[in-house]
Amino acid sequence: MPWWTSRGLIARIFLPLSLLFALVVLTRRLAYRRGWIKSIPMPCPVIVVGNILVGGAGKTPFIITLARELIQQGYCPLILTRGYRGRSQTWPLLVDSDQDAAIAGDEAVLLARRAGCPVIAGPDRVEAAHFGFESFRQEPRRVLLLDDGLQHYRIQRDIEIAIEDGDRGYGNGWLLPAGPLREPLGRLQEVDFRIVNGKSSDADMVLQGDILVNLADSRRESISNWRGRKVHALAGIGHPERFFRQLEQSGLEVIRHPYPDHFGFREEHILFDDPLPVVMTEKDAVKCEKFASKRHWVLPVEANVEHRCIQAISHRLEAVMQEKQGEQDG
């Protein structure tokens, strides 16, 4: 929302509601801490990845990179995601790479295609976790990766990772609806790792993408070959401006078409009365590919995470794995 960037009049009008929201958030967290509401323990390590900021901060590319790293280290990561906006009649759902995004949700399908590990979608994360254990009980060294799970306290967590947007910061620093925060800024002092996404010198992660892929025939072209070219750019993600800037920094002339996060694209949304190419994000492409033509392209991105961050997370995970194993042996 426009008023989230400052503490102006509109933000102040919503401030009483933010104070009420803060009371609910803090009471809920206290209830879990004191044991008034029970968190469910899991037999394997649980890593939650999320943020306290409304909108995209880069958590999905980060989870993909983390899952791939864990696989290389001999772990069996199981990603749990909500399946937001998915219309499946049955949950939880083991998501296939060719699953319809309308059924499983756009992020779930994207994770299934890119992470290289099982993805279980479902609004009940505890049920999804048990489903994952049962489905992959023969796999050693299982690890649960809870997508967007920082505020999901029903599952006991062993490692918390907060993804921070180094470009946007935290707006006016107020909670919803006066500001963009889901939890107070002090919550960041409690997590195990803070990963800053951006291009500043102190960033821990940067999103990189330089190959365009055609949605109709899978042709690949270097984005550098498109320098100076005018394109329509579609983005139905949490922070569309980051995608538009990425294209502009690659030398493209961008006609912006921002949409709400998880927008349900239909064919008419990606057609224009000119022959210009259309470029979109991966999360949008999984919803548009079935009615896309040769003018439609996707720009996949990779989360390039500092090695020291991955190494630190790996060391912490190994310690947790040994603790869990000791508890089971005992």
Q: What does this molecule look like?
A:
The protein has 330 residues and is an alpha/beta fold. It folds into two domains: 2-75 and 141-205 and 305-329, no CATH class; 210-300. It contains eight helices and 15 strands. The strands form three sheets. The protein has a seven-stranded mixed sheet, sandwiched between helices. It has a six-stranded mixed sheet with strand order 10-9-14-13-11-12. Strands 8-15 form a two-stranded antiparallel sheet. Helix 6 links the parallel strand 11 and strand 12 (253-258). The longest helix is centred in the N-terminal third of the chain and has 26 residues, at 9-34. The relative contact order is 0.16.
Structural key phrases:
6-stranded mixed sheet, 330 residues, 15 strands
Continuous helix count: 8
Helix content: 25-40%
Question: Mean pLDDT, nearest integer?
Answer: 95
Q: Major sheet, described briefly?
A: 7 strands, mixed
Radius of gyration: 20 Å
Low-confidence stretches: none
Please state the structural category: alpha/beta
- The CA-CA distance between the termini, in Å, is 52 Å
Strand order of the largest sheet: 3-4-2-5-1-6-7
- How many discrete domains? 2
Count of extended strands: 15
Q: Report the sheet-strand fraction.
A: 15-25%
Sequence of secondary-structure elements: HEHEEHHEHEEEEEEEHEEHEEH
Principal-axes geometry comes out as: globular
